């Protein structure tokens, strides 16, 4: 068996192990667990490759781990710098955009019922892709196309840390928090937070319990921009030019749209947060696109000829 086939078999076994773990323990959201799975994928995807590739893998994995751990740490302390908490501003922007209507309240009044509906299940599935799709995409790109992985990570890290900077200077109460009786704000009618009810309907209580634990340790005022909305659009934009035709592109846009509707319906974010996340993605792709174009132009441009040389 060739090394390529050994690597392929190992990747299949890795995938089966991940599916088993998901069914038993839910999707890993704790950062060290996620990094453990990512590290395993890097190791398996590098089986049999030369020493230079192994060394490169170590450097890439260390960078990747530092990126996520520094993000988690900085996001966790973002609300401790003393900047005033924004409570009414994002809601007021939403109301201005929707002619005096609160989109979160409007959606829950019309769609949230005592029994779990099909769109609750779909919403839980879409919401949870945030913890899987961006990371899985980065792992796939690293294994198959490292140059594309570098392009992906440049843009991804920019959105990630621009978001953290905003959380520091603009801590914001999300809709569920601004409406909750547990907090002194109560600027609108109470909202439910049915993020995990779809998983319970599917019989995957482990997934729901992991999600609830994650919500307990997460910084609740890291609301604007919405990285859930940002990364749903991010993946689509990254692969936009690689899609075979306009039909695929149109269908792909349903993913960030579904994420946006889910976040509003679940009371997790205002529309303002979502639009901000999309703008951050656009700015990141614009900046790095220009940087890469200029870099490529310098490589292709021949050095000036010495006039003294015949």
What does this structure look like?
This protein has 310 residues and is mainly α. It has a domain at 82-294. The protein has 15 helices and no strands. The radius of gyration is 22 Å and the shape is globular. It starts with a helix and ends in a 10-residue tail after the last helix. 29% of the residues are buried. The model has no long low-confidence stretch (mean pLDDT 86).
Structural class: mainly alpha
Listing every helix as H and every strand as E from the N terminus to the C terminus, the arrangement reads HHHHHHHHHHHHHHH
Tell me the total number of β-strands: 0
Distance between the termini: 57 Å
Q: Give start-end ranges of low-pLDDT stretches.
A: none
How many strands, what sense, and barrel or not for the largest sheet? none
Hey, roughly how much beta strand do the residues contain?
Answer: under 5%
General shape:
globular
Q: How many DSSP helices? A: 15
Proportion in helices: 55-70%
User: How big is the Rg?
Assistant: 22 Å
Mean pLDDT: 86
Brief descriptors of the model:
310 residues; 15 helices; globular; 0% strand; 69% helix; mainly alpha
Question: What is the compact description of this entry?
Answer:
The chain is mainly α and about 300 residues long.
Itemize the secondary structure elements and their pairings:
Blueprint: H1 3-25, H2 31-45, H3 51-76, H4 89-97, H5 103-111, H6 118-128, H7 133-144, H8 146-169, H9 175-179, H10 197-201, H11 205-217, H12 227-238, H13 246-252, H14 254-265, H15 271-300
